[in-house]
Amino acid sequence: MQSHSTFQTRFPPAWLWLVDEAIPSWVKSHYSPKASWKDKPFGPPDAEFFFKGIKELSELFTEDRPKHMPHYLNHPRYRSSYLLYFVPLQAAKFHTVFQLHPGAMDAAIKHAQQTGVLRVADLGAGPGTASIGLLLWLLDQKNKPESQFKIEFEWFDMNRSIMEDGKSIVEMISSHFPRLRDRVSVKIHAGPWSNAGHLIQGETSLILVGHVLNEAARGELGPSSDEHAPVDRSSPVKALGRLFPKMKGGGVLIVEPAERRSSQMVSQIRDQIIEDELVPAEGSSIWGPCLHAGRCPLASGRDWCHFSIPAEIPGKWFRTFSKNLSSGTEKQWVKFSYVWFASPDYPSKPAAAHLRRVISDPLKKPGLPNSILLCEQDRPRRLEIPPVTHLKRGDIINVLQVNNTSIKSRAKGEEDDELFGRAMARKKRGKFPPKYPANPDHAFESDSSRKSFSEARGYKTRGPRSSKKKK
């Protein structure tokens, strides 16, 4: 079982060919405004020209985008921008999750070997971003005999034009590499992704759902910032529920952006799928990131479940666009939220009962020891940690080892009660808010008390400063 924070995404050699040569050349030949440009190599002037659309599209991809935003991929300017920058970025997320869960990918491959076809449904496909990430993952597998089976993609998206563009790129990939040649096919379904359950015939080896909940379910799930707001998960859950009888092999992978609204949608839909018994309420029903099948503790409220994985996405043009978007800094991480359901025929291996996943970065609060949050059913557990620690979000720890050390563990609510109590004690002492981020038990009333406290513990202290200047 993989700790996320210590993992670093590995990109295959085929990645550079795709993002530096194949996609830029294809985009230039199909989207350059002048015919005289189309047969020339992609260069800096082209990057400058297409970056304008990339910047505009990036500004649209925000949490506060309009509720009924028109479909951006209807415009050729944005389709070309998406292919150049967002396909590598989003494919890197799927490629990373594939590597984080080799057991799930092995299950998909085993099903393909048994049936002779790796059947992949890609919902919200766009240009087949998740499918492209899967092809690159296959090319990086030295001991996976993909030549023994065909690879069939079924794509579902509202925009036929972007799927046609993606299909051309997939055909370019499969014809370029002998291991994939004459083995890959793409079937396009232009329409809502929620129709996939009606249109897919037979079993699937893997179902990929990418970046559709934030757009398709906008307004359906309610404002997650209000813990007590009514939440309607029925529409996405019903659509996904029609897929579960067809899922075999690697199951269903849902990937969404790392921001709170999308992440909490994933958590809420995960809980509803388990409550509706679409999958058994067992740890073997989930590949990750969850280590249990209880209710997600971060499905509402201030915190949310998401991950940041170190990844230097290759490609000179991608780095150029990334630097221009980020004021000269390159992207060093891929960030996302996700849940991966396992097929009952190919269950995951349940995590040991003493393991917990860290679901926060180290928390530092005035007056309290440093701490992290652990994923427990219903509510997170706060764990006190030393001032210097290597624990980060996504790590997996052994709570038995924790309980045998001086590190303390407590329910988050208990810690919040203690924090409130200490704050009131500081207020009574006239030290609210604290002047220094010190433990409230060590609050100093004066310089003399600070000195006596230090001397009591054997620390060296300075005497009063002399007003005389050195000659």
Describe the structure.
This protein is an alpha/beta fold. It has two domains: 13-341, Rossmann fold (3-Layer(aba) Sandwich); 352-471, no CATH class. It is 38% helix and 14% strand. The chain contains 14 helices and 13 strands. The strands form three sheets. Strands 1, 2, 3, 4, 5, 6, 7 and 8 form an eight-stranded mixed sheet that branches. It has a three-stranded antiparallel sheet with strand order 10-11-13. It has a two-stranded antiparallel sheet with strand order 9-12. Helix 5 links the parallel strand 1 and strand 2 (150-157). Helix 1 (13-31) runs antiparallel to helix 3 (76-100), helix 2 (44-60) crosses helix 11 (316-325) and helix 3 (76-100) crosses helix 11. The model is unreliable at 217-232, 405-412, 414-420 and 431-471 (pLDDT under 50).
Overview features:
disordered C terminus; 471 residues; 13 strands; Rossmann fold; alpha/beta; single chain
Low-confidence stretches: 217-232, 405-412, 414-420, 431-471
Q: Please give the number of β-strands.
A: 13
Task: Give the number of domains.
Answer: 2
Q: Mean of residue pLDDT?
A: 81
Q: Helix tally?
A: 14
CATH topology of the largest domain: Rossmann fold
**Secondary-structure content class:** alpha/beta
Distance between the termini: 66 Å
Helix content: 25-40%
The CATH architecture of the largest domain comes to: 3-Layer(aba) Sandwich
